[in-house]
Model the fold of this input.
Amino acid sequence: MAHKDKQEKAGTPHAGSGIWPAGRYMDMRRRSLQDPEGFWSEQARKLDWYKTWDQVLDWDPPYAKWFVGGRLNACYQCVDRHVRSWRKSKVALYWEGESGEERVLSYSTLFREVNQFASALKSMGIETGDRIALYLPMIPEVIVAMLACARIGAVHTVIFSGFSAYAVADRVQDTGAKLIITADGGYRRGKTIPLKKNIEEVIDQCSSVENIIVVKRTGEQVPMKEGRDHWLSDLMKNADMWVEPEAVEATHPLYILYTSGTTGKPKGIVHSTGGYMVFNHSGYQWVFNIQEQSIYWCTADIGWVTGHSQVVYAPLSHGAAVVIYEGAPDYPEVDRWWDIVEKYGVSILYTSPTAIRTFMRYGEKWPQKHDLSSLELLGSVGEPINPKAWHWYYTHIGGERCPIVDTWWQTETGGIMISPTPGIDPVPLKPGSVCFPLPGIDTAVVDNEGKEVEAGTRGELIIKRPWPGMLMNIYNDPDRYQATYWSQFPGYYDAGDFAMRDEDGYMWVMGRSDEVLKVAGHRLGTAEVEDAVVAHPAVAEAAVSSKAHEEKGESLVLFVILKKSEAPSDTLKEELVKRVREAIGPIATPEDVYFVNSLPKTRSGKIMRRVLKAVASGEEVGDVSTLENEASVDEVKKAYESLTQEAEA
Ligand code: WT7
Done:
């Protein structure tokens, strides 16, 4: 099995001593599982509540309500709490633009801007419970806007600025957002991304939208519709300096964030306010061992859940100093990130295996140009990290000093679930393993029937009881919520990942067990991509699969059956690639396109992606006894071989 080479004995870097799980961690874990309600209410008391809860957990499977009857405000936790202390003059955000501009916001500046923004939202008629779509680059305003929404109890839905206009329309329609907050544009690799123009393309399909707030970033000319579109700077001029935070119910939704599933339609993951904040506040301390003097940089874009939990809500709830950067990692030079680490004295760096592998390819001469001695702790998230990349990160970035926290979690889990916890105890690490579940998280690895498998055997990763950061629902689609997460193993949360627990109890997450693809750590559903391809008039049928990619982990490979009247051509290939990019965004750019005459299917008509993946990767095709038409495997294979030969020639 592929993970075999990954297993190294505990004893390699940061070995500590003794046998794990042990020590303080084990005490917390025992207590959290014996008395979860007592344990989580202890954690919850670390936040400020307007009213404490009447009930810690109301578990009516598959719906969990945490801290029922309690009232709090997430913006208050992240901002007001700190301006009431000496932290008012502490740095909240260090922002660096791609072209080198800098902005530093103290907690008191953040407080003022958030209040004014909240006042602007109120002037647009926004009320508690209204949905607001954010389509913004990585600039301080995106964080200010999120917190302003939270302040008045409005529900934000952030749309990654690398997504297409169609993705915006989809999400606006699903949420019924009244307001869009965007910018004239954003910078990426020296070019601008025309955000407001993108919205203009689809605004006719967004009938719920009454107003658009536009942040000036690039200064480019953009169409502004009188009465509907407003410059943020104008609204801020007339804004109040104080807006009372709304004391919302713990179960009030804080945000909706869309993620890909196995159908063409992304799922709107709904997170609560109380449980989500409690879970992230405690987990952040356990995993990152955050200290008052820490300078923390999580490189994720705000458009992903990592940006929500690990850039905004968890660190700010601790009053941490957070670095954010607008642009591309290797722009204008490959050492841009290392320059930022040195310049701001970053002590905690949290990033993705894809980024590490990319830098690994450029070579260690780039980090070596910089003094990275401020680093104390490194983190990884989004996909399995291969030991080679782990060691490179450990050696060339961490200077063999810094433990690496490999954190497993999902958009749905709200916060980190499985990870080393140096904030509790030093953990002996194993490169490639996410180590142990956080206190209060009850994981298991099971077979298809839900029976726990033995140590060393691959199975499905499940969570056996609810946790405070658990999603509340899929927006507008409770049936899908039930079917996706709770139908295969009733009563247990089905993560959709393969995992293994080794003999020492360490967890290894080994990729998705469903039809979700992971490209550069980002989730893509096969159906989303296929829908975009099939919409082309020349296409009869299409299947997307993936192959291993040195940096991105996986890359997309399209198999396309053309209509009888059509002939394969390079132009057609390019058109199909362009279609997918337009429908989803550049992250979904297919790496290869193959024209074939049939697709391998099971007797029930399901495409055998395993076969396509093997073919695309040049591997042996395994058991094909359930194939409806075995010939098609050969055919796909032949097509692949000839096309690669052609490409090589
Ligand atoms: C999926 C969730 C959670 C933030 C970023 C991704 C994979 C995530 C790890 C890890 C192995 C990982 C899983 C998971 N994944 N972290 N440390 N090791 N795999 O969020 O888009 O919701 O994706 O990412 O497959 O299910 P997401």
User: Anything to note?
Assistant: Residues 259, 304-306, 381-384, 406-411, 434, 495-497, 509, 512, 523 surround WT7 (CB under 6 Å).
